[in-house]
Amino acid sequence: MKSIKILIWAVLATIVAVAALVSAGAKAIKVGELEADVDRLSLELSHAQIPLQRDTIRDSIEVVSQVVVEVVPKHLKEALAADEKLIKEMGLKIKQLESMQTTVVEIGDTVPATFQEDRDLFSYSDKWADLSLDLKDTTFYYNIRDSLSTVVYREYRHHFLWWKWGTKGYRLKIVNFNPRARITYNKYIQAER
């Protein structure tokens, strides 16, 4: 009788110990997931707050550099909430997207215009802009061109001599070829796969 009680207590103690181990394991997994979410969110927030870094090549061509914000697919809808209407108008769904970029460019300059008295016409033209104001029929014609090139590249986490490995993250560089234009805002969101 005493050995049966000891056996029952041993079985109950084993069940409680296994339940405690399973519960601790489940909590450790949940804590790991929450820590990963906190790391991801802090990384996204830090990337979103990094201002554009500006540089110049060929003495007058502006290059803007920025960190790429990487989001997991389940959080892509939150990251693209402001652009959701535009994406739907294009006949796409957010889950189809791999990445999306928004760039805002501001163009402005003061240029000398030529005046043709016989036609009452002020005009200016160069590689990036055509402007003309006809005073006779009060029309203003303008055509402004711009050219942007965007390159996304990987930043390596480790390097030793000429070997590079691991991925720290992604950055993008935007080259603006119009010397009168200035990039004022850029957002690039990429889905992690």
Describe this structure in words.
- By secondary structure, the protein is an alpha+beta fold.
- The protein has 2 domains: about 50 residues; about 110 residues, no CATH class.
- It is built from 3 helices and 11 strands, in the order H-E-E-E-H-H-E-E-E-E-E-E-E-E.
- It has a 4-stranded antiparallel sheet, with no helix packed on it. A 4-stranded antiparallel sheet has the order 5-6-7-8, with no helix packed on it.
- A hairpin with a 3-residue loop joins strand 1 and strand 2.
- It is elongated.
- The protein starts with a helix and ends with a strand.
Layout of SSEs?
Elements: H1 2-48, E1 53-57, E2 61-67, E3 69-71, H2 73-79, H3 84-89, E4 99-107, E5 114-116, E6 121-125, E7 129-134, E8 139-144, E9 148-160, E10 163-176, E11 181-191
Parallel strand pairs: 3-11
Antiparallel strand pairs: 1-2, 2-10, 4-11, 5-6, 6-7, 7-8, 9-10
Structure keywords:
193 residues; alpha+beta; 2 domains; 4-stranded antiparallel beta sheet; 3 helices; elongated
Strand order of the largest sheet: 1-2-10-9
CA distance, first residue to last residue: 61 Å
Domain unit count: 2
> Helix proportion of residues, in percent?
25-40%
Quantity of strands, as a count: 11
Q: What would you report as the Rg, rounded to the nearest angstrom?
A: 30 Å
The overall average pLDDT, rounded, is 77
Number of helices: 3
**What structural class results from the helix and strand content?**
alpha+beta
How big a fraction of the residues is strand? 35-45%
The biggest beta sheet reads: 4 strands, antiparallel
How would you sum up the global shape? elongated
Output the helix-strand order: HEEEHHEEEEEEEE
Poorly predicted tracts of residues: none
